Amino acid sequence: MKQAYIAGNWKMNMTPSEGAAFAKELAKAIEGTGSKVMVAPPFVTIPAVLKAAKGSALIVAAQNMANHESGAYTGEVSPLMLKDLGVNDVILGHSERRSIYGESDEVINEKLLLALKHDMNVVFCIGETLEERESGRLEEVLERQVRVGLAGVKGDQMKKITIAYEPVWAIGTGKTATPDDANDAHAFVRRVVEKLFSKGVAEATVIQYGGSVKASNAKALMSMPHIDGALVGGASLSLEQFLPIVNFDK
Ligand code: PEP
User: Under CATH, which number does the domain 5-246 receive?
Assistant: First the structure.
């Protein structure tokens, strides 16, 4: 089994002082854990969290970034700015970016290629809506998101990319995909990665599950053969809820 990769997406929560206090405790609490652990604070909270996590194994990521390096893009944050802060990891294609801010597969692909250009690690999110699942289009949607999102990526760059399968209907709703349903979707995504690259790349790719992961379901999800980690929203905002997910195997 690969090293489990547990990531917390704080979304628009945690001021810089709240984030720093949280990260300080989390960084200490994950000493000696077997999992790779990441948190993604809001942009303005990142510097305080980086400072609090300094010297620890906690990875600090951005939740998004621009598809340009600089210029007249009001309100956007460039990969160059993130790198200058010391941020080497970014979440791209989250369903809230897709549905609320209208990010297309093509824009996400531009961002992903730009992140790779700057040697950043990417958590690349995909996932179907309830309507897409119920109309039998699950595989079509996932295949399109993977093919377009990863267009132009070379096999040896795939080690910089984690895929997060997050069924949109399970995000923040309390509804979780069953471990078997999630595993089937992960197996399908891995087959698409194999078609695009190779069996070796597909087997090595870390695929996280996201969608109402909590302490009570983390172990069952993580025990499935194709689930290598978790991307956690709501439950990543409290140590009481996040630490048992990080330590799902204890
Ligand atoms: C997410 O936003 O990536 C997510 C999975 O949220 P939640 O865990 O709250 O469903």
Answer: 3.20.20.70
The alpha carbon of residue 108 and the mean position of all alpha carbons in its chain are separated, in whole angstroms, by 13
pLDDT at site 225: 97
Smallest CA separation from ligand 1 atom 1, residue: 233
Residues within 6 Å of ligand 1 by CB: 9, 166, 171-172, 210-213, 231-235
For atom 3 of ligand 1, which residue has the closest CA? 233
94 is catalytic: yes
Q: Where are the domains of the chain?
A: 5-246
The Cβ of residue 121 has, within 10 Å, a number of other Cβ atoms equal to: 16
Task: List the structure tokens of 115.
Answer: 């992140």
Q: Using only C-alpha atoms, what is the Rg of the chain? A: 17
Which tokens is 128 given? 């179907």
Task: Write the DSSP assignment of 78-137 as a string of letters.
Answer: -HHHHHHHT--EEEE--HHHHHHH---HHHHHHHHHHHHHTT-EEEEEE---HHHHHTT-
CA of 204 to the centre of ligand 1 (A): 24
Whether the pTM exceeds 0.85: the reply is yes
pLDDT tens digits, residue range 82-111?
Answer: 999 999 999 999 999 999 999 999 999 999
> For residues 232 and 236, what is the distance between their CA atoms, to the nearest angstrom?
6
For 167-185, give the DSSP string: -GGGTTSS----HHHHHHH
Q: Does residue 230 sit in helix, strand or coil?
A: strand
Q: Give yes or no: 25 in active site.
A: no
5 SS3 class? strand
The pLDDT tens digits of the residues spanning 40-70 come to 999 999 999 999 999 999 999 999 999 999 9
